[in-house]
Amino acid sequence: MLADRSLLRLSGEDVRGFLQGLVTADMAGPFPAWAGLLTPQGKALFDFVVWTDGDDVLLDCEASVAEALRRRLSIYRLRRAITIEQTDGAVHWSREPGQGVPDPRLAELGYRWLGEPGEAATGWHAHRLSLGVPEGEAELGSDKTLWLEANARELNGVSFTKGCYVGQENTARMHHRSKVNRRLVVAPLGEPGERTRATYPDLGLMVELRRVEALGDAVVPDWLATALAHADA
Length: 233
Known about the structure:
Elements: E1 5-12, H1 15-20, E2 33-38, E3 44-53, E4 56-62, H2 66-77, E5 82-87, E6 90-94, E7 101-102, E8 111-115, H3 124-130, H4 136-140, H5 168-177, E9 182-188, E10 196-200, E11 205-211, H6 222-232
Antiparallel strand pairs: 1-4, 1-5, 2-3, 3-4, 6-8, 7-8, 9-11, 10-11
């Protein structure tokens, strides 16, 4: 299991409709889906994987921000008969097939499923970073990174057809102008600067927000190289 993940359960009156007007992914499916909850300006506050359990929705999120995410969603709930609470269960991951479903962001990330707590998985963070995929508050920041700068378009984290959600206007404008000037990237560990978001000395890596014309020694996996080539065309 991924010990740094937690689950929030949303149950009650039309929870998918409730989330549809808030988060970046389409709550009509398919699931699981990677999604963000943004500021009105389109900057990331939280990211999570959305699962369904009957009429309920489960948010697979960072354990360290689960309570903050619960409080933020509760603000939008208003008078709706919706319950939002942390729930039992664990998020599991394997690099190899055999159980679970492909990660909704990138199939190469491996397989993910929900279940009872068990033995901690090893190698997840190194594998994710080797593929240049950012996640979580430390890397995305809170109210610091525009959702498309976090590579959400390339990693299936946003729907441009679902209608309005918080931060939709600026996100859609960037998309239609094909204008993403900066990208969150993984790079070999160096001297941290003002654009450095997270450092991992044990892995010799860091995550930075860099201008697309100055990516330098950043890891540029195939999925990102394709996006950059398309933007230049």
